[in-house]
From TrEMBL:
<keyword id="KW-0496">Mitochondrion</keyword>
<keyword id="KW-1133">Transmembrane helix</keyword>
<feature type="transmembrane region" description="Helical">
    <location>
        <begin position="49"/>
        <end position="70"/>
    </location>
</feature>
<protein>
    <submittedName>
        <fullName>NADH dehydrogenase subunit 4L</fullName>
    </submittedName>
</protein>
<keyword id="KW-0812">Transmembrane</keyword>
<keyword id="KW-0472">Membrane</keyword>
<feature type="transmembrane region" description="Helical">
    <location>
        <begin position="24"/>
        <end position="42"/>
    </location>
</feature>
């Protein structure tokens, strides 16, 4: 199962790189795939409570990271003037 997710991450990175998509799409994709890999690994070890806590923390970190990235992107592109 882990090899499937690693292959999927590599395949999607190459696909998105050659089709010149926006950078935050790639960031969202990697955050979601990384959270799913961590969640599956923890669930396979039969620590379901730890997996849920780790998934919740990872989701909060992903939201903060994506919002910071989008804020910095709008500041540098001139959409948001200070």
């Amino acid at each position: 199962m882990l090899f499937f997710f690693i292959f999927l991450m590599i395949y999607l990175f190459v696909f998105l790189f050659f089709y010149k998509t926006e950078m935050y799409y790639i960031l969202v994709l990697f955050e979601v795939l990384f959270m799913m890999v961590i969640f599956i690994l923890i669930m396979m070890m039969n620590n379901s409570w730890f997996g849920v806590v780790l998934l919740m923390i990872s989701t909060c970190e992903a939201v903060l990271g994506i919002s910071l990235f989008l804020n910095m992107n709008t500041l540098s592109s001139g959409i948001l003037m200070k």
